[in-house]
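Curious: can you check?
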Amino acid sequence: MVKNLRRLIEQVAKEKNLPEWLVERALRNSIALAVKKSQKIREDVEVQLEDDHIKAYLVRRSKDQTIKLPIDIEPADMDRIAAYAAKEEFLKELERAEEERSYLEFVELEGEIVVGIVRKVQEDGDLLVDLGKVMGVLPKKEQIPKEHYKVGDRLRALLLEVRKRRGKYEIILSRTHPRFLKKLLEAEVPEIKEGYIKVEAIAREPGERAKVLVSSTDSRMDPVGVVVGVRGSKIAPITEELSGERIDVIKKSDSVEELIKRSLAPAPVSAVRLFPEEKRAEVAVPKEKLSLAIGKGGVNVRLASKITGWRIDVYSEEDFEKLTKMT
């Protein structure tokens, strides 16, 4: 009987283009369900396919151990159970296995950009996105705040995670994750994929502003110029994709003082005072550029702090001088 089941596994795996282990698991699950029905068992049942017979076990779990008790099944009953399982429950389990295979294929795409069509806007704002073989979810918190979608819209997003929840697989998408911006940069700037330009860090406030720290492996190559492109030709499509998100590209520096100055672009910085023990910096800018340095709602200085890893306090040049005299 088991030999026949083995042949069935091989045949179905070939026909459905599924791995044999997935087909075997579906068959074992269907037989386990048939055993439970035939013997009116409510607890978990585990099935093993061995050399020339099928073994079934009652599985009891406690906090610190799992006990497996053999289930006594007459050979004639086992034949009937196996036949029933193969005909009835196996088809249902096989459908689940095919669905799982489709989701598992997307595991390899974690961290990559995928394209899909919005099929449903849920009441909580989450989007169900058709990715072809499967559906993905773009949660409200992973959407750029100023964006609004309707059924039929085409969108690009980062495949953030393939996870299993309550026995079902879910594909979680994101348009707010820093890696989404990084993958967009890789698509627009070949030098990043080729290794000439390295993206050192990214800080984002989705839809508002982002700062990208870059370096070059070739001293003759200006990483900022390469990433931005002639007249912004490479960065402009990314800003458009991100609903107007302003992107500041910053060249890495081994000097903390210089890095902090660059991170506050587009505001000019006239002086920096470091407090290494607190990993804090006080920065002076012209009074008329103070609002530019801080940014709307503090976004510019907040992102500068994230990209440098230093807390940055911004002052006008006059207030900076007063603080200097007090210390």
